[in-house]
Here is the input.
Amino acid sequence: MEQRIGSNSQPLKGEPVTGAGFDPAFIPGLTGSAAQGEPEDAKPTAEAADSAEAEGSSAPAESVPEADAADSEEEPAEEGGPAFEAADRRARIVADRRGVRLALDAEECEFTWPEIAAVETETARFGKRFTVTVHTPDRRWYPIEIEAASRSQFAEWDAGMDKVLDAYFESE
Here is the structure.
């Protein structure tokens, strides 16, 4: 084994390594690594502001994604079909025709039905926690626990999730 000592030792140059082991902020399905996005100290230029005004947008650029999110939340109600939603004070899961969306505090992730290999539900033997785990084809899994008001909600939530999976999830 060779050891380098002194000022002559330089880090190896090459492509930046991504992944949770090298970037703690990187969580597949939730966020991209900081190296993939623009630098944190980057500020919008005057040209970007002028182009937004030229498009006729009276709202600032930051509020546009919120408007899109509000529109996307209304779509499932208009389309119909089975939908499942369960939430507690911290966590939330929504399953409908678009896919499965998980949220915990301020973090959110969305999986479309082609991105999902399996969905597993589990109830705690003791306590009031309902666990939903989304498995992807690349052998990753994303669990979320929701605390029920009472254990009687487990059967209701399990039946609701089964209806959605029967309607939209196609196992191959």
